[in-house]
Amino acid sequence: MGGTLYVVGTPIGNLADLTERARTVLAEVDLVACEDTRRTGRLLAHVGIEVPMRALFAGNEAERTGEIVTALRGGLDVALVSDAGMPGISDPGFPLVRTCVAEGIPVVAVPGPSAVTAALVVSGFPMDRFVFEGFLPRAGAARRARLAALAREERTSVLFESPNRLAALLGDVAAHLGDRRVAVARELTKLHEEVLRGRASEVLASIADREVKGEVAVVIEGAASPEADLATLVAAARALVAKGSRKRDAAATVARGTGIATGDVYAALLDERP
Questions:
Q1: In a domain? residue 225
Q2: Which is nearest to 204 in space by CA: 166, 261, 147?
């Protein structure tokens, strides 16, 4: 009889977030496939578990997947973990899960923490429909294409970004997505947890004179539907004007990506009484 692959969620920062079920599974499996044996080793030592580990990361994923599948076919139970959160979500693991599913090897989820959902629930943006974009391409046509798609995306979007590229991302959101509202969640569940909220340009200004450190997730509000309420856009433009923007620039900023013409917002601003 073959073994089972357990896809186990691990803490994204606070070790107390490891579930009791995850502890039980990690203690009972024959092998743990992990992104970094040193990091997972510290987690296992913290909860008093000793179990053989095999590194599974981007550089060896193709070769190591075959080895782990062979172990599963031989009857060993294997736990798949990443450095933090649920495996396979912007982390190694997907090829192993896909191969097991294709070969009829049982795959069982052991749910746990996820930076995606943790950032989403503290963002203040709608959570009933959302899309996870992972890391955007760093530059070039691929990045521009993804930004263009996000400009039309009406669902809340969640992205990961490295601290040293956060400013560039916020600048692109401000330039290409109509300076949409964002929530930047940093070091979630850790001692220095922080959530910065506001329009992309405002959050960018707030980090201009500081060094951003730690794990970062960025949540972006969805684009207004083509039927967006003109009055809502006018109110947003009025707020930008109050901060010093010219009326035409403010109208262009809030209208971008909404399906409502800049001229309509601008005309409504001009029609307002002083």
A1: no
A2: 166
pLDDT at 259: 65
User: Mean pLDDT throughout 8-36?
Assistant: 96
One domain, residues 160 and 214: yes
**Counting every residue, how long is the chain?**
274
CA distances from 142 to 23, 133, 134, 137, 148 (A): 41, 13, 14, 6, 10
pLDDT tens profile 190-200: 999 999 999 99
Burial class (CB in 10 A: 0-12, 13-18, 19+), 30: middle
Amino acid at 15: L
Partners of 58 in the β-ladder: none
Give the tens place of pLDDT for each residue, 59-93.
898 889 999 999 999 999 999 999 999 999 988 89
CB contact set of 203 (below 8 Å; sequence gap of 6+): 170, 182, 184, 196, 197
Query: Residues 13, 65: one domain?
Result: yes
Instruction: Supply the pLDDT for residue 77.
Output: 98
- Segments forming the whole domain that contains residue 33: 5-113
| Alpha-carbon 239 to chain mean position | 29
Q: What is the pTM of this model?
A: 0.80
237, 261 Cβ separation under 8 angstroms: no
Q: Which of 113, 145, 167 is the last residue of a domain?
A: 113
| DSSP letter (8 states) at residue 272 | S
Classify the C-alpha dihedral 255-257-263-268 as positive or negative: negative
Q: Is the pLDDT of residue 47 over 80?
A: yes
Same-domain pairing of 107 and 10: yes
